[in-house]
Design a protein that fits this description.
Layout lengths: L10 E3 L10 E6 L18 H8 L9 E5 L9 E6 L8 H17 L4 E7 L8 H14 L19 E7 L5 H27 L7 H13 L4 E5 L1 H6 L3 H7 L7 E7 L9 E6 L1 E5 L19 H15 L5 E11 L11 E3 L5 E3 L7 H14 L4 E6 L3 H7 L4 E6 L1 H14 L3 E3 L17 E2 L7 H10 L7 E5 L5 E2 L9 E2 L4 H7 L13
Parallel strand pairs: 1-6, 2-4, 2-5, 5-6, 9-11, 9-14, 10-11, 13-17, 14-18, 15-16
Antiparallel strand pairs: 3-4, 7-8, 8-11, 12-13, 15-18, 19-20
Helix pairs in contact: 2-3, 3-4, 4-8, 5-8, 7-9, 8-13, 9-12, 11-13
Bound molecules: ligand BES, manganese (II) ion and zinc ion.
Length: 515
């Protein structure tokens, strides 16, 4: 599959709801609101809105949907849906994004062709209208993702509805304030969906070479320059950690480099994005159990996030230089595979005793982080499905974030919050480093069961050269095991929007000292 063809833009509208030409007009509604919230809806639905509210048929709990036809011929919308927005205290752009996805999924299921999602400025509190509009556009776009691409018996999935974001606000300039935001949200949603497509792709089709080809196409279309390093070039650079992991496979490794160089921004900080690109993780000689191993096709979700964020960064013309690095390989137990006890030499010169070949992500990222520094990165962020321990610590809701200095980690955390990617910090106290002591090499690649996510991050820290660095462990968040109203089962596209948005915050990067 090549990158999805440019999809239709999301329409924007302000003005009276009665004038919006749509099949379904979706109006968010708080739990404790009466008819007075949007009084103009009652007449045209022949009193159905008032009745549903009074009878509690519609309770406005989060993601509830109540649909009713419009009977007034002077109204252009054919139907109205009230969409449950729950309690006002939980309302914000994060919720709007989810509500829009839930509405979008419901509309697609019903094969509705045109949907207008109403943003009520009166619900927003302090949140700027533009931020809400962007989130709504992201949410609607996220509802377009389809995980069943290899099904041959099912009817083809319904084509995505034509979306409109309709602002209901008194301000005369409301439409101006949301138009750009909606386009931005559309694009970021599309880039998230491209990352989901890549993560969903099985290991037999998405080999390292194929991953590199697709990632190249995705980023090139965004105006980003791309270079693919093959196994010979990787060897010349001395990347013994990446080569070590690749030894067990007959598929050769690749390392892809993305560069975003906005004109006239020669000096200043360079954001370095590094993503784990294991196209399938069997564990290698320290092989994983069979149960659930199929999930390890998404062990390149971090790399996909970097590639797709680079596309967004290029298309949105981020005002800072960005380099992206994704080491790509399978982790297989072939006859030439690395074995426990083997020593690998990293490109940075440090030696690693491999205790467990299933701790391969940190190995390839070690060389990847080093290379991002060689390319001039001044601020590093890596994203990786790195440890099962992250799932134990934070579950499937929240990614772990680690790094130094604190101000940089907090910056990443702030951006992630806004982007709708939940992250939470875990500590990197020096004492944890003791768990990586080796008798024979500079350090080991595993630190035992205790604090498994932290020792993995401590390993990565060895390759960051003291630069500001944040590591996001998405092992729990890259894949949804259970469907939610706002998120179907399957790949989530986590971290794409965070990485892309981070490239728009460079003004805020120099405030901090060390922590
Ligand atoms: N890709 C896995 C981590 C993972 C586990 C992601 C579950 C998603 C769900 C990683 O390469 C791995 O195998 N980590 C090991 C490290 C251990 C051997 C120190 C783990 O977490 O068990
Ligand atoms: Mn592994
Ligand atoms: Zn892995």
């Amino acid at each position: 599959m090549t990158p999805a063809a440019a999809s239709s833009p999301i329409g924007c509208s302000s003005g009276p709801l009665s004038a919006i030409d749509t099949d379904l007009l979706v109006v968010p509604w708080f739990e404790d609101e009466g008819l007075g919230a949007v009084p103009e809806l009652d007449g045209p639905t022949s009193g159905e809105v008032a009745r549903a509210l009074a009878s509690k048929e519609f309770g406005a709990r989060a993601y509830d949907l109540f649909m009713t036809p419009v009977t007034d011929g002077s109204w252009r919308p054919r139907r109205v849906a009230l969409a449950g927005a729950g309690r006002a205290s939980a309302f914000g752009s994060d919720f709007v994004r989810r509500l829009a996805t839930a509405v979008g999924l419901a509309a697609r299921q019903r094969r509705i062709e045109r949907v207008a999602f109403v943003l009520r400025a009166d619900m927003a509190g302090d949140t700027p209208l533009g931020e809400l509009a962007q989130a709504a556009a992201e949410g609607l776009t996220l509802s377009e993702f389809d995980a069943g691409s290899y099904k041959t018996d099912d009817p083809p999935p319904a084509k995505a509805p034509a979306w409109t974001v309709a602002v209901r606000a008194a301000a005369a300039d409301a439409l101006d304030r949301v138009t750009d935001a909606v386009a931005r949200g559309r694009l970021l949603g599309e880039c998230s969906n491209l990352a989901r497509e890549l993560s969903n792709e099985p290991g037999n089709t998405l080999t390292p070479r194929e991953f590199a080809r697709r990632a190249e196409a995705i980023a090139r279309e965004g105006g980003v320059s791309v270079e693919i390093l093959d196994e010979n070039r990787i060897a010349e650079l001395g990347m013994g950690l990446l080569l070590g992991v690749a030894r067990g496979s007959s598929e050769p490794p690749r390392l892809i480099v993305f560069r975003h160089e906005p004109p006239g921004v020669a000096a200043g900080p360079v954001l370095g994005l590094v993503g784990k690109g294991i196209t399938f993780d069997t564990g290698g000689i320290s092989i994983k159990q069979a149960e659930g191993m199929e999930r390890m096709k998404d062990d390149m979700a971090g790399g996909a996030a970097v590639a797709c964020a680079m596309r967004a960064i290029g298309l949105l013309k981020a005002p800072v230089r960005v380099v992206g690095v994704v080491p790509m390989t399978e982790n297989m137990p072939g006859g030439r595979a690395i074995k426990p006890g083997d020593i690998l030499k990293s490109a940075s010169g440090k030696t690693v005793e491999v205790i467990n070949t299933d701790a391969e992500g940190r190995l390839v990222l070690g060389d990847g982080l080093w290379y991002a520094r060689q390319l001039g990165a001044t601020h590093l962020v890596d994203v990786a499905t790195l440890t099962g321990a992250a799932v134990v610590a934070l579950g499937k809701i929240t990614s772990g974030v680690f790094g130094t200095p604190r101000a940089w980690v907090e910056q990443v955390q702030r951006v992630a919050d806004r982007a709708g990617d939940r992250v939470w910090p875990l500590p990197l106290f020096e004492e944890y480093r003791d768990q990586l002591k080796s008798d024979i090499a500079d350090f080991t690649n595993t630190g035992g069961r205790a604090a498994g996510s932290i020792t993995a991050a401590m390993f990565l820290k060895e390759f960051t050269g003291g630069l500001p660095w944040a590591h996001i462990d998405i092992a729990g968040t890259a894949w949804a095991d259970e469907a939610k109203p706002y998120l179907p089962k399957g790949p989530t596209g986590v971290a794409v929007r965070t990485l892309a948005e981070l490239a728009f915050t460079s003004q805020q990067w120099k405030l901090e000292g060390k922590s």
